[in-house]
Amino acid sequence: MLSLAIRSRRVAPRPLILGTSLQRCLSSTYGLDSSISVDSSTPDEWVEVQAETEGEWKGCVRSFMAPIQINSRGSEILNNPLFNKGVAFKGGERDRLRFRGLLPPRRLNMQLQVQRVLEEIRAEESMIRKNEILEDVHDRNETLYHRILVDYIEEMAPIIYTPTVGQACKEFAQRFRRNRGMYFCEEDRGHMAAMVYNWPQKDVHVIVVTDGSRILGLGDLGANGMGIPIGKLSLYCAAGGIAPHRVMPVVLDVGTDNEELLNDPYYLGVQRPRLQGAPYYQVVDEFVQAARHRWPNVLIQFEDFSSDKAQASNRIESKHNIPVILNKYRNQVLCFNDDIQGTGATSLAGVLGGLRAKGEDPTSLGDQRILIAGAGSAGIGVAQVLYQAMLEHGRTEEEARGCFFVADEKGGRLTEVIFSLLGIERIDQLSPEQAMFARETDGGLSLNEIVNKYKPTMLLGMTAVGGLFKEDLIKDMAKHCERPIIFPLSK
Q1: d(CA 369, CA 480)
Q2: How far, in Å, CA of 213 to CA of 210, rounded?
């Protein structure tokens, strides 16, 4: 293990070197390459290294790994969640990093710490309580946090993201303990280029940004929407292998129209009605420019923006002079909108896979009759991607549009929610993207009426309203199609 000589006289702080055992715990988290090219003629006994079975190195491999150089020392390391690994620091590390005596003497390796946290999580029945336990680990020990996510992603994903993250966002202000991410508001205009340098990490690869206007199916949660970028980036780090110090969650706090939050004394965001029009887009544009100025190659993901802000047609832009977000930046900036493009691309892959499973060629997509329940950004985004795929397969625009039957919520009585087919009689109430899929006839038909009249071969649920696909609806689908493709993607 590498050592660091400590001078007795006072000198300017020098970078400390975190040794190989800490590096090994961080390597899967921080994406550092520990591989060494070995000549094929080298004897196996020279290069084969086995994990230790006892002592403080138990479960670890003693082999070369390039160390991380940091400027922190002593308790600063223990208080930095990026570098802290709890009581797993070995004796040599405690001496070299200057915190011997600041931790209990017994060492617990990462495997034991993982099991301890898992036992605490599994003892809880409440999902939000599980989320609190995991986020507490996140705030103090990211090495342990991401080790748990990587090893138990299927169990942990519902805890850190949907469906639990919605409740976590609603309780965000009450649960706020430690800052994570950055916030930009109208008062910051003119300062954002300098503000981004307050972020401590120099090499940000991915930013997930939301304005909190359409958080899942909960609507406008304002600054409380920060839970979404945090949760999404945690998944990217665990499942996508992105290093945690290379991501940044962001909220553009442009106010809120949620009366409950406007009157909440503990709400942490701007307590004013949402910005609209030019002032809103000026905040967005300055943020994008500031982020790209410091990190020119950063990927910006727009997350949970309301449909009217996320994307609009050129006709609306020219009429109102509105540079709507996705259309403005998609050809200039490395960016995407997850709700529109991400959901659409994933759904298209699933649909094409479904066609293959039925023994049909993917080019038969244009022969399908597709009923989509939900005309929000996700539903319309999926429709647009499927529509584009049909055009790629040689269908005309008219033929492709004729394949879609998009139904959206149209009020209801008491607890009943009614979904009806979008028709041209509602054209004044629809966005340009929705209007593209409005039917010239039979507008207002219910889901069951659409199924029985038009006999769709695909049924896609893309709404925040659950329980729409009742047994009678599925049976009606099966009457008209031997193997219907059904995606219940509603939350």
Answers
A1: 11
A2: 8
Which pair of structure tokens corresponds to residue 176? 């706020």
The pTM (predicted TM-score) of the whole model is 0.79
Tell which residue, 227, 178, 226, 181, has the closest CA to residue 204.
Answer: 181
58-73 pLDDT tens trace? 777 787 777 777 788 8
Catalytic residues: 161, 232
Q: What confidence tens digit (pLDDT) does each residue in 123-132 have?
A: 999 999 999 9
Question: Residue 403 corresponds to which tokens in the numbers above?
Answer: 């394949």
- Residue 221 CA to residue 226 CA, distance in Å, equals 9
